[in-house]
Amino acid sequence: MKHGKLIFTVIAAAALAGAAALSGCTVSIGTDGRDGQDVSIREIFEETNAARLEQGLDELTFLEFVSQYLSYDGTEAEQMTSLQAAINRSLLSSVQVTADFGSEGIATGSGVIIQADREAGDMYVVTNCHVVCMRKEVSDDVHVFIYGREYSMVESGGETFINSASIAQYGIEAEVIGSSYTYDVAVLKVTGSSAVRSSDILAAEWSTDEDVYVGASVYAIGNAASGGISATNGIICVDSEDITIDMYDTPSNYSDDFTYRTIRTSVPIYSGNSGGGLFNSEGELVGLINSKTVVASDGEYSDNISHALPGANVRRAARSMIDAYERTGRASRGVVRAMLGVTVELQSSEAYMNNQTGLVEIVDYCVVREVSSSSIARGKVEVGDAITHITISDGEGVKEDADVTRLHNVSEIMLSAREGDSVAITVERRGGGDPVTYTMQVTSSCFTTYN
User: Which residues span the domain enclosing 169?
Assistant: First the structure.
């Protein structure tokens, strides 16, 4: 085994079967003396309002019902109902994804709608690269399925297959317009779909926060176990950690190992969750699920150790792919990132209590170790400088205006830079003195592609 712990991506492979009829089922409410397990709060709410109408009383809103009948105070009731509303909005931003690889089978995963034009029937969907790519092959037969129009499964010979009739009926053709194993991000484009035009889909809203904090409530929406779009919830366990995945599943070959910065969460995920969204309690996208730890370093099986790519990084990588596609009209492999030409290293790291927010924040002190001879920062930024702030502007305004508080901030923020942009770097000079800001222009020679 190559690594101390076993981390799996969470896609599912499925074979395609012919159309088959599926039998229905009947659900009884309050049977077997187990009313508390059989009846949902929503059903009790509906029954309560039906009884009130019979008595000539006004119907209650769900918030009023929760407050009066379930002994929640106003704040608790609002939190519960607002979370439910956020989750339900996120359902309309989530899709199932299938990628056909011919004789290799069909991979199934999840995706998040990040841009939508319902009138035109167009949308962009972000997912994991490993959902739509198998080794170096990008699937040319990709479909997405919006909530309420999902594919179904059939059983045959003791195995479960995707119902081909449901793909034909509900599948929306999508093109992979960008993909990168380095970032494990891919972007799909849907064009002129009548299903999109007639739907209530919503583009997910990105969180504007650069970082997440331990203990924050989060939930995942995805195609869990390839059984349909569903929700699970938990908390942020580790705000930032690196994991290494053997993407091509070749234990003897280290060249296909990829290391990702991820958020660790306790949200339960399953096969098929890959590419699905991780959302905060406000319904904002804070991450993209990509893997789970199955076996810990000591060989013990692990429960609910899930990993998500940070939302800020995914947003920038996806935007880079979309910009490249809209500029050239062609699909591309890789993410193009502007390089400052400086090597930054971590000198120290400390945790501080933010008394205003009540949250513990980790602050890295990042200093410049080397400035390359071809760097646009040469003659400005010096070895020993501590980078504290980066601003990126184009002709239309400011694109990034962020403090550098963690080592990863520098490279991730530079994903937003395009040729011709201005980058302002604020540094604290070794030996003290006031911070100094240097402005430089991004040129074509600054870019590197990460496949």
Answer: 1-20+30-39+73-333
* Tally of structural domains, the chain: 2
Q: Do residue 163 and residue 261 come from a single domain? A: yes
Q: How many DSSP H helices and E strands does the chain contain? A: 9, 28
**Which residues, at least 6 apart from 259, have a Cβ–Cβ distance to it below 8 Å?**
242, 243, 244, 245
Report the distance separating Cα 239 and Cα 361, nearest Å: 10
Q: What is the pLDDT of residues 213-231, one digit of tens each?
A: 999 999 999 999 889 999 9
Residues 182 and 129 in one domain: yes
Specify if 355 maps to a domain: yes
Residue 59 lies in a domain: no
Quick one: tokens of 142? 């990709």
Alpha helices in 232-384 (DSSP H): 311-328
Tell me the percentage of the chain whose pLDDT exceeds 90: 67
Distance CA 403, CA 400 (A): 10
Q: How far apart are CA 206 and CA 200, in angstroms?
A: 19
> pLDDT tens digit string along 24-52?
222 223 334 434 444 556 677 788 888 88
